[in-house]
Structures are given as C-alpha cells and as structure tokens.
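Board notes, transcribed. Complex of a protein with FE2/S2 (inorganic) cluster.
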Amino acid sequence: MRRGHLVKMAVLLYRFNSFIKGGFTTMSSEVGNGEKRYHKVASVGEVPMGSGKLVEAAGQKIALFNFKGEHYAVSDMCPHRGASLAEGFLDGGKVFCPWHCFDFNLKTGDCTMVPSLRIQTYEVKIEGGDIFVAC
Ligand code: FES
C-alpha cells in the first residue's frame, strides 16, 4: 500500500473518531440550564414487556423499552450505521442493534463490542399509567 493511501486512511479514521465522539457521546438528559423537563411519550400499555417503541420528545427520536417490567429510554439512532434501536432486541439489560448486533446497555448507553460508541440515555418516570421521558 502506498504512503498516500495510508495518510488518507489515517485522516478518514481521525474524522470518524471525531464524529463519533462529538455526535454521540453525550449522556446528559438535562437541557441548557440543567433543568430537566419530562415529556409524556406513551402509556404503559403501549410498550409490552420485552418490546420497544419509537417515540419523539422535544424533537428527538427516542427508543423506549420495557425490559422485565422496567422502562428505559435511549437515543433511537445506532451510532454505527444509523439503524433504529427501537427495532432491536433485548437481552441482559441491553438492546442489540437490528442491523449488526452491536449491544448498548439500557442504563448507561455503553457499547460492549465497541467501547468508543455510546448512546444517550434518558430518565424515565411513570405516573398515572403514562410514561414520561426527561429531555
Ligand atoms: S447499524 Fe447498529 S450495529 Fe450497525
């Protein structure tokens, strides 16, 4: 391989890493001044145990899950290639991407397969049979 190709590959890798770090590593569900706002996104009956649902709150696409009776909310877009994580499958407290099976912890957003990848997580609360997400 020629040196020029190696340099181009290094630049592309650097840009990809910068994109991943800048675009998908934030974990806070706080807005501007640190204040959290809860948005009603679904009723409890709309997300049966073991399933996911795509919802929107404050202009963000959010994957809502019911794992063993606990509700979790994470950013919907997989940071690998953009699949909808709401269509993924659940196992061991993680959502597995439907396209290439990268795993993301529902509580932390951490990815075991590629530790540099992470998805945003959101606080969830249930009130009166409705599900609220803070964002
Ligand atoms: S698009 Fe999610 S793992 Fe590839």
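The mean pLDDT is 83. Residues 78, 80-81, 83, 97, 99-100, 102 surround FE2/S2 (inorganic) cluster (CB under 6 Å).
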